[in-house]
Specification:
The chain is mainly alpha-helical. The chain has 2 domains: about 5-90, Tyrosine recombinase, N-terminal domain (DNA polymerase, domain 1); about 115-300, Orthogonal Bundle (hpI Integrase, Chain A). The chain has helices at about 5-20, 25-45, 55-60, 70-90, 115-125, 130-145, 150-155, 185-200, 225-240, 250-260, 265-275, 280-300, and strands at about 160, 165-170, 175-180. It has a 3-stranded antiparallel sheet. The longest helix is centred in the C-terminal third of the chain and has 22 residues, at about 280-300.
């Protein structure tokens, strides 16, 4: 199969659009790019700007042979809609042939979370006797105390910190800023990391003077700590203590929200702290709390 040259240029322009203008995460952008590339390869020499609705439907019928999950098919449809919406905006096509595509209903699954005891078990098993270990404790304390996304934590600069008021400003999805709150314990570990451990992390490397744009969390060469390394930190600890759960950084966010709801926090407050655009995204944690309540009831009530 040969990729049409005009389609190839449209794809590269689309990539810039979703990264720069739409501010998609690099992971989402990579998935959308791959989805459209597969579609264009399937089109072969046909110009993507000449595609109509039946042709798009034909492609969706074709990919059924791969037995994708409903969530994957839904994302591929979203990719096509966004791609052709972009071409329509750029006046390269008169109509969006993917506009009326119907996505399959996604199976409803509740986010997984950790109990407070499991979180404390993870935190207490971090070796804080080394600079990197102290940094890792500060990182996980922050994730647990604030509910911030791991990408938001990785992107923290010193200008985002207002530790005097236990506040941190983060840049969330869609480049939206919000203020999150942290506990005194998380602040203690963060301050300790900044005052003592940070300068020892990149041993043998000279660190630039701290300014508002200086990254808070760094790796052993003095550069910004990436999200992949934070995932590795969690994996190592979970393997060490043999916790019977697959734990991700995002589970700290789910746990944060779930425990706030369980302890009576107002849904709107949780929405603001998490940076959700819609309250419906936050409401799922009420379902988690109810499910957890039922599990506790069934396990503890003598007549259950």
């Amino acid at each position: 199969m040969v990729l049409n040259l005009k389609s190839k240029q449209d794809l590269e322009d689309f990539k810039s659009y979703i990264l720069v203008e739409k501010n998609f995460s690099k992971y989402t952008a990579k998935a959308y790019y791959a989805d459209i590339l597969s579609f264009l390869i399937w089109l072969d020499s046909q110009d993507c700007e000449d595609v109509n609705f039946p042709k798009v439907r034909e492609y969706l019928h074709y990919i059924q042979i791969f037995n994708y999950k409903k969530t994957t098919v839904a994302r591929k449809i979203a990719s096509l809609r966004t791609f052709y919406k972009f071409l329509h905006r750029e006046k390269k096509i008169d109509n969006n042939p993917a506009e009326n595509l119907i996505s399959p209903k996604r199976p409803k699954s509740l986010p997984k979370f950790l109990t407070p005891e499991e979180i404390e078990q993870i935190l207490s098993n971090i070796n804080i006797d080394t600079p990197a270990g102290y940094r890792n404790r500060a990182i996980l304390e922050l994730l647990w105390a604030s509910g911030m996304r791991v990408s938001e934590l990785s992107g923290l600069n010193f200008g985002n910190l207002n530790l005097e008021n236990n506040e941190i400003t983060v840049l969330g999805k869609g480049s939206k800023e919000r203020i999150i709150l942290i506990t005194d314990r998380a602040k203690m570990y963060l301050q300790g990391y900044i005052d003592y451990a940070r300068s020892l992390i990149a041993k043998g490397y000279s660190l630039d003077p701290i300014t508002d744009t200086t990254p808070v969390f760094i790796n052993k060469t003095g550069y910004r700590l990436q999200t992949r390394m934070i995932r590795n930190v969690i994996n190592e600890i979970v393997d060490k203590i043999e916790l019977p759960k697959k734990v991700t950084p995002h589970m700290f966010r789910h746990s944060f929200a779930t425990h706030l709801i369980e302890n009576g926090a107002d849904l709107r407050v949780v929405q603001e702290l998490l940076g959700h655009a819609s309250i419906s995204n936050t409401q799922i944690y009420t379902h988690i709390s109810m499910q957890h309540m039922k599990e506790v009831y069934n396990e503890t009530h003598p007549r259950a």
